[in-house]
Amino acid sequence: MKKYILASYPAGLKMLLCCLVLLTALTGISDAKTLYVIDSIIITVRTGPGTNYKVIASLQTGNKAEKVKEEGDWSFIRFSRDREGWVLSRYLKESPPSFLVVKKLRSEAKNNKKLIHQLKKENAGLKKEDKIIRSQLAKIKKSHDDIKEGAKGYLDLKKEHENTKIKLEELISSSQEDAVQNEVLKDVKKIKWFLAGSGATLGGWLIGFIMGHAGRKKKSNLSFSLK
Questions:
Q1: Which domain holds residue 140?
Q2: pTM over 0.85
Q3: Mean pLDDT within 196-223
């Protein structure tokens, strides 16, 4: 079962079409195919395979029909919601007419144009989003660099603080040692002065003691001589 569509042919092709129709009739009916009415023509659909049968409908270029069977130069077709009738086979062909091809191409071109416009719009949107993302990344990178630099400064400051603390502890320790030494020196000086004062006192006392003892002894000797 084939589908055909009406079309018109130049007069020089009529003989060739007749031969083709005859060849098709001799080889039998093949599987059903969608056919089209050939270009620029209106054909009549009849109740039987001949011009003496009643016209029940008409088909124009581009209408689809399904060929059920063939009989001589005529084809029994099914069209428009299961309506049936007979048409001349030479007005049917398997390929769509040129105006349908052009119409389809124009429709595809129109759809492609819309698609291209949509893609351009989406591309513009993506470019805008990419610009925003790049700007945000630049800000994040700057913040990261600032944090990194701040962390480096903090570490340097912490290290410097630790060094200063060590130096201060050393200075405090050195100062304490100096203070201890000064206190010791002061104590030594006090002891020296004490010893010096005590020595003078003790020396005077010893001298006085010795002198007193010598005087007493001298008096004793004198008294002994007078007796």
A1: 97-163
A2: no
A3: 63
